[in-house]
């Protein structure tokens, strides 16, 4: 039997919530869980796709830790709560979640596809040393800078370099500081 999804999501949000009023914190956690649940249910029903326990586990794994995992990383997380799930099911479910707009696929050069739960307009920073992907807020390009008749339907931006942790521990950083 699969564990109750809402309780796991609530726990994640409770750990990250730093408000001082515990009653308010609990109420905010429930609202957040309900919002994720509501978004999931609406998107699945509008897309005509069935809501399955496997898809729900995968969605909750992405919403619980917003760290841009690959399909294999999602598989390893979900396998703990759904031991019978296969890697093929994870790939198919991720495709379905992307198709109905619940998550984004992040393609970076020849790296494995990663999945992003942040649906706001943003870019990504890829650390060349540790491989972690971080969200980067950035303004949308003005439509007026395009030639007449051009229409933007999507945009992607990926920055590459070293994250603060890798930069502070690298030889490159020490050489730059000497300059």
Report Rg. Answer: 19 Å
Per CATH, the class of the largest domain reads Mainly Alpha
The CATH topology name of the largest domain reads Arc Repressor Mutant, subunit A
Percent range for helical residues? 40-55%
End-to-end CA span: 60 Å
Please provide the ordered H/E string of secondary-structure elements: HHHHHEEEEEHH
Strand content: 5-15%
Quaternary structure? single chain
Mean pLDDT: 75
**What is the number of independent domains?**
2
* Low-pLDDT segments: 1-34
* Overall body shape: flat
Class from helix and strand fractions: mainly alpha
CATH architecture of the largest domain: Orthogonal Bundle
> What is the spatial order of strands in the main beta sheet?
4-3-5
CATH homologous superfamily assignment of the largest domain? Winged helix-like DNA-binding domain superfamily/Winged helix DNA-binding domain
Query: Biggest sheet: strands, sense, closure?
Result: 3 strands, mixed
The number of E-state strands comes to: 5
Annotation field: number of helices: 7
Core attributes:
disordered N terminus, Arc Repressor Mutant, subunit A, 48% helix, 179 residues
Structure description:
It is a single chain. Helices cover 48% and strands 11% of the residues. The chain is mainly alpha-helical and 179 residues long. It has a 3-stranded mixed β-sheet with strand order 4-3-5, with no helix packed on it. Strand 3 and strand 4 (133-136) form a beta hairpin. The longest helix has 26 residues, at 22-47.
């Amino acid at each position: 039997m699969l564990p109750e999804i809402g309780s796991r999501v609530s726990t994640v949000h409770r750990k990250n919530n730093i408000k001082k009023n515990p009653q308010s914190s609990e109420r905010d956690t429930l609202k957040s869980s309900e919002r994720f649940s509501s978004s999931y249910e609406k998107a699945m029903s509008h897309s005509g796709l069935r809501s399955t326990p496997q898809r729900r586990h995968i969605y909750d794994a992405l919403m619980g830790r917003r760290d841009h995992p690959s399909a294999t990383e999602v598989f390893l997380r979900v396998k703990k709560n759904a031991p019978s799930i296969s890697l093929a099911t994870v790939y198919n479910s991720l495709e379905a979640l992307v198709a109905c707009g619940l998550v984004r696929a992040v393609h970076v050069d020849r790296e494995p596809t990663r999945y992003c739960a942040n649906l706001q307009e943003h870019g990504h920073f890829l650390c060349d040393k540790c491989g972690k992907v971080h969200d980067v807020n950035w303004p949308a390009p003005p439509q007026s800078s395009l030639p007449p008749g051009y229409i933007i339907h999507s945009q992607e931006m990926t920055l590459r370099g070293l994250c603060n942790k890798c930069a502070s521990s690298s030889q490159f950083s020490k050489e730059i500081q000497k300059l």
